[in-house]
Write a structure and sequence with these properties.
1 helix, four-stranded antiparallel β-sheet, 9% helix, 102 residues, elongated
């Protein structure tokens, strides 16, 4: 079923920021009552004790074209003084409907 929105206009969504964090720890934590897995994860996210952060990175889309091709992106890693910046150029041939050629 098609549900028209925005006066019948089409649109797309593009995630522009992504955070990835990987940590390892011991569950259930030693000593005390055993929390639920969800409560343990919330504690780890808040910076609780006992876990080791293995990786933490943030990826941000800083520019994209009307077809959703990502033209510029920045990636940074937690604890590292470096930001990787990637830029791309795309060819979009709308007459032949060939889109997204690098």
């Amino acid at each position: 079923m098609l549900a028209p929105t925005n006066d019948g206009a089409t649109y797309f969504t593009l995630p522009t920021e992504r955070r990835l964090r990987r940590a390892q720890g011991v569950y259930p934590p030693p000593g005390g009552a055993t929390p639920s897995v969800e409560a343990y994860v919330r504690e780890v996210e808040a910076g609780g004790d006992g876990e080791t952060v293995l990786r933490e990175l943030v990826s941000k889309v800083t520019d994209f074209d009307t077809f959703g091709n990502v033209r510029a992106k920045e990636v940074s890693t937690g604890g590292v003084d470096l930001t990787l910046k990637v830029t791309r150029a795309f060819k979009n041939d709308t007459d032949r409907w060939i889109l997204g050629q690098l």
